[in-house]
Design goal:
Layout (H helix, E strand, L loop, with lengths): L18 E2 L5 E7 L2 E5 L2 E4 L5 E2 L4 E4 L4 E5 L5 E4 L5 E2 H4 L5 E2 L18 E3 L3 E3 L5 E4 L7 E8 L2 E8 L3 E3 L11 E9 L2 E5 L9 E4 L2 H16 L9 H17 L3 H13 L5 H13 L3 H18 L2 H17 L3 H18 L2 H8 L3
Parallel strand pairs: 12-19
Antiparallel strand pairs: 1-10, 2-5, 2-7, 3-4, 3-6, 6-9, 7-8, 11-13, 13-16, 14-15, 14-17, 17-18, 17-19
Helix pairs in contact: 2-3, 3-4, 3-5, 4-5, 5-6, 5-7, 6-7, 7-8, 8-9
Length: about 350
């Protein structure tokens, strides 16, 4: 029988409309019994006075009492017998300074085979999975991987995805995948017509891949047997694993993890919210908008106002990127109202300055 039952892990620090993270400070002020901290995939026992960081996972035993002093001076009694992300009880305070540099145009023109993966990401395997937007009335695609101006691999496929099986990818080298449609009259639409700019990917160092694998193994070791997990537990595990991938800039792996959960029928506001954020980072704005919209609908149904507010601002961010100023303002106003309902007047005031 495991000591820990997974409830809801929320470890995403949401990036919103030019959100710049301030210094984050939280501290363990009371600990009775035993509790563990997982930081960057490494577990350790907790002590009173321990400083906590964004992304930390807290796991008090079922008979333990753990209290944290957040940086806004709020005391948070961490639920026992479960896993909680520090951001659940001590969300970071945000400073809004215009458009987020991570977000940019791209992924909106359905007439071109724009790259979905690998796009602005690290990859952990020598056989990355390439995906692109399927273009109507296209029978074949030519796929190429380039190192600088040199084509190091190419293939032709009727599908909108393919596994790379070329020469081993080397860490520290920038690669780029391109896709062109093929018709009776020759090559047609080109993925480079996308507004997303250079879509570089790199191979993660072997030592870092091992760290990722160890971190994921730690997460899975704290979970119930997958065969007996509830849908909420399975969703939380997927979000936690996606966070590990994200922390190593393995955005394609993070997205694939969450998309797989959705295909398996596991759907929560948190999964859609995290996908919205990840797709925003890799500049796939149509995908980001779709998932932020789903997160907003589900968060309302779950009465999760904190996640609702983050998703509303995330969607406003996407609307700004794609030049829909009126819609951006509408979603900022929605977010302001939600933050005011939460009693977070500081964030509401910061957002109001952007109207």
């Amino acid at each position: 029988m495991k000591h820990y039952l997974l409830s809801y892990v929320s470890i995403l620090c949401t990036v919103v409309v030019g959100h710049t993270l301030p210094a984050f400070a939280a501290e363990v002020v009371e600990l009775s019994g035993e509790a563990q901290l997982i930081r960057a995939g490494t577990p350790q026992l907790m002590d009173e006075g321990m400083r906590l960081e964004l992304g930390d996972l807290l796991m008090p035993n079922v008979d333990a009492t753990l209290t944290v002093l957040c940086d806004n001076q709020r005391l948070w009694r961490v639920p026992s017998g479960t896993i909680s992300g520090i951001g659940v009880g001590c969300p970071s305070r945000s400073t809004f300074r215009g458009l987020n540099s991570e977000y940019g145009p791209g992924g909106t023109d359905a007439s071109i085979p724009y790259i979905i993966s690998a796009r602005k990401t690290m990859v952990s395997s020598d056989t990355p999975h390439f995906r692109w937007n399927p273009v109507g009335n296209t029978e074949m695609y030519r796929v190429q991987v380039r190192q600088g101006n040199t084509v190091i691999w190419q293939a032709v496929t009727p599908n909108a995805e393919i596994l790379y099986d070329g020469v081993a990818l080397q860490p520290g080298i920038e690669y780029r995948v391109t896709v062109e449609t093929i018709s009776d009259i020759g090559l047609g639409e080109f993925s480079d017509y996308d507004d997303g700019g250079p879509l570089i990917f790199e191979r993660l160092e072997a030592e870092q891949v091992e760290s990722v694998q160890a971190a994921i193994a730690t997460i899975r070791a704290t979970m119930e047997d997958p065969a007996t997990q509830s849908a909420a537990q399975s969703a939380a595990q997927s979000v936690a694993i996606a966070h590990i991938y994200q922390s190593y800039q393995l955005y394609a792996d993070a997205i694939a993890t969450l998309e797989t959960a959705l295909m398996d029928g596991i759907e929560t506001a948190e999964i859609h919210h995290k996908l919205g954020h990840l797709y925003g980072i890799v500049q796939l704005n149509h995908h980001a908008e779709t998932h932020y919209q789903a997160a907003i609908a589900l968060a309302r149904g779950e009465a999760n106002l904190d996640l609702l507010a983050h998703a509303q601002v995330g969607l406003a961010n996407i609307k700004q990127v794609v030049g829909q100023s009126a819609e951006r303002q509408e979603w900022l106003e929605e977010a302001i109202a939600t933050y005011e309902t939460l009693g977070d007047l500081t964030t509401a005031s910061q957002l109001r300055e952007l109207l």
